[in-house]
């Protein structure tokens, strides 16, 4: 990790949801760097009782939702965040899973915690840019976005994705990135938070964003 050490305000317990999709250990290592007490779990009861959840993920939306449902984690996640006591941060595929649906590998319903659809970048959308969108890119956030407090104007974060949500019609606080078209880079409403980029791979900016999430 580069830059200043951004430690948690206190020993915070965070549950990272393990449903077999992608390497979760970079997320775990970032949280441990912030001096968090990290639990990795695929147990519904643990998920339901956790005050702070992180849903990471890399890969297919359909396969991810199938895994969540097989493990009964879909119900556990929704139950956990029904009130205001607990909060969740979806990262990359994890953000997309919080959406209403995706066309990846066939029509699949998501957790519907973010009222937005997940669609693939189209060649006409991105122009001369390549698909997938890979690398560091600048993000523009709304002034009231809690995740971005204290970050520089137009901070950059690390992306790797072929599917995206659009910000149109959302009532929460959002941040966007332009890759040919403007897409949803981050979202927050009440206790639901998400980033399309990988904060755990985004050096100092990513660590600060994670710290902001933990402190909300």
Helix/strand layout:
Layout (H helix, E strand, L loop, with lengths): L12 E5 L7 H9 L3 E5 L2 H6 L2 E4 L5 H10 L2 H8 L6 E5 L1 H5 L3 E2 L5 E2 L7 E4 L2 H4 L6 E6 L1 E2 L14 E6 L1 E2 L8 E7 L1 E9 L2 E4 L7 H13 L1
Parallel strand pairs: 1-2, 1-3, 3-4, 4-14, 5-7
Antiparallel strand pairs: 5-6, 7-11, 8-10, 9-12, 12-13, 13-14
Total separate domains: 1
Overall morphology: globular
CATH superfamily: Class I glutamine amidotransferase (GATase) domain
* CATH fold annotation: Rossmann fold
Percentage of β-strand residues: 25-35%
Q: Low-confidence stretches at least 5 residues in length (pLDDT < 50)? A: none
Radius of gyration, in angstroms, nearest whole number: 16 Å
Kindly state the percentage of residues in helix: 25-40%
How many angstroms separate the termini? 23 Å
Sketch the major β-sheet. Answer: 8 strands, mixed
Number of distinct beta strands: 14
Tally of alpha and pi helices: 7
Strand order, main sheet: write it out: 2-1-3-4-14-13-12-9
CATH class: Alpha Beta
Structural class given helices, strands, pairing?
alpha/beta
- Taken in chain order, the helices and strands follow as EHEHEHHEHEEEHEEEEEEEH
Overall residue-averaged pLDDT value: 94
CATH architecture: 3-Layer(aba) Sandwich
């Amino acid at each position: 990790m580069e830059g200043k050490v951004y430690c948690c305000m206190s020993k915070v317990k965070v549950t990272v949801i393990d449903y077999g999709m992608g390497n979760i250990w970079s997320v775990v290592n970032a949280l441990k760097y912030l001096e968090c007490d990290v639990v990795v779990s695929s147990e519904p009861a643990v998920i339901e009782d956790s005050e702070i959840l992180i849903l990471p993920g890399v890969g297919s939306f359909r396969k991810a939702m199938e895994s969540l449902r097989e493990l009964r984690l879909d119900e556990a996640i929704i139950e956990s965040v029904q009130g205001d006591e607990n909060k969740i941060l979806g990262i990359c595929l994890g953000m997309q899973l919080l959406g209403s649906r995706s066309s990846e590998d066939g029509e699949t319903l998501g957790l519907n915690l973010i009222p937005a659809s997940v669609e693939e970048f189209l060649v006409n959308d991105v122009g001369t840019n390549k698909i997938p969108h890979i690398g560091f890119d600048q993000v523009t956030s709304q002034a009231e976005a809690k995740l971005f407090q204290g970050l520089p104007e137009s901070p950059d974060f690390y992306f790797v994705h072929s599917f995206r949500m659009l910000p149109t019609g959302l009532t929460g606080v959002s941040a966007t990135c332009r890759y040919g078209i403007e897409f949803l880079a981050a979202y927050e409403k009440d206790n639901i938070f998400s980033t399309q980029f990988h904060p755990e791979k985004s050096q100092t900016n990513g660590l600060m964003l994670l710290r902001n999430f933990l402190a909300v």
